[in-house]
Design goal:
This protein is an all-alpha fold and 200 residues long. It is 67% helix and 0% strand. The chain has six helices and no strands. Helix 1 packs antiparallel against helix 2, helix 4 crosses helix 5 and helix 5 crosses helix 6. The longest helix is centred in the C-terminal third of the chain and has 35 residues. The chain starts with 5 loop residues before the first helix and ends in a 13-residue tail after the last helix. The relative contact order is 0.09.
Length: 200
């Protein structure tokens, strides 16, 4: 089969890789059920959905009528090398459980920067900024709490688009933060901070 759409090919491969990675990491944790979700529930379900979506997009690369060359994404080797280097530093400087909030936030920023640079090595800004916003949310959730982490997710991912309207993004952030707190913390009782640990 001949690849007709390079964008779909690479996007599908990327979705499959991320989805399977999430599922692989989640298998070491308790799954739980829909009513009492364990720590593996969201990564496993969302990872599976992402992998299936990636498979559909990947197969579409062979039948798409929109012709794009296979080499469609710019590659920046220096970003990748710096990101891998910072990732190694972050791996060997992980804070212990009783570390101060300053150390946790500093490590979060270092790890996020490492992953962001690795994403930035591939593709256009809109692609890696949205992926980076999800990583920021994951790293910020524990030290900064659900509300601030949701704000970072919404504002950073909105910055990746072509238009950034502060009013609309702020309304989306407030609505999503209220929904998340009342659904996951109050409703399902998931053990996560709403605000930074030093404020609670």
């Amino acid at each position: 089969m001949k690849i007709t759409n390079g964008k779909d090919f690479w996007a599908g491969l990327m979705f499959i890789a991320f989805g399977l990675s999430f599922m692989y990491v989640a298998q070491n944790y308790a799954m739980g059920s829909s009513v009492r979700m364990g720590p593996a529930y969201f990564p496993m379900v969302l990872g599976g959905m992402l992998a299936v979506l990636g498979g559909v997009v990947f197969l579409r690369a062979f039948v798409s009528k929109n012709v794009n060359p296979l080499r469609v994404f710019p590659f920046r080797l220096r970003y990748l090398l710096v990101g891998v280097g910072l990732g190694i530093v972050a791996y060997y400087t992980q804070p212990p459980r009783d570390a101060s909030i300053v150390w946790q936030i500093g490590h979060m920023l270092l790890s996020g920067l490492a992953v962001g640079l690795m994403f930035a090595a591939f593709g256009e800004r809109s692609l890696w900024v949205i992926l980076f916003s999800v990583v920021i949310f994951g790293y910020a959730l524990k030290p900064l709490g659900l509300v601030i982490a949701t704000g970072l997710l919404v504002f950073v991912s909105a910055w990746g688009g072509r238009e950034f309207r502060v009013k609309e993004v702020t309304i989306l952030f407030v609505a999503l933060a209220i929904f998340s707190v009342y659904s996951f913390v109050k409703g399902l009782g998931l053990p996560m901070n709403i605000w930074p640990a030093f404020l609670e």
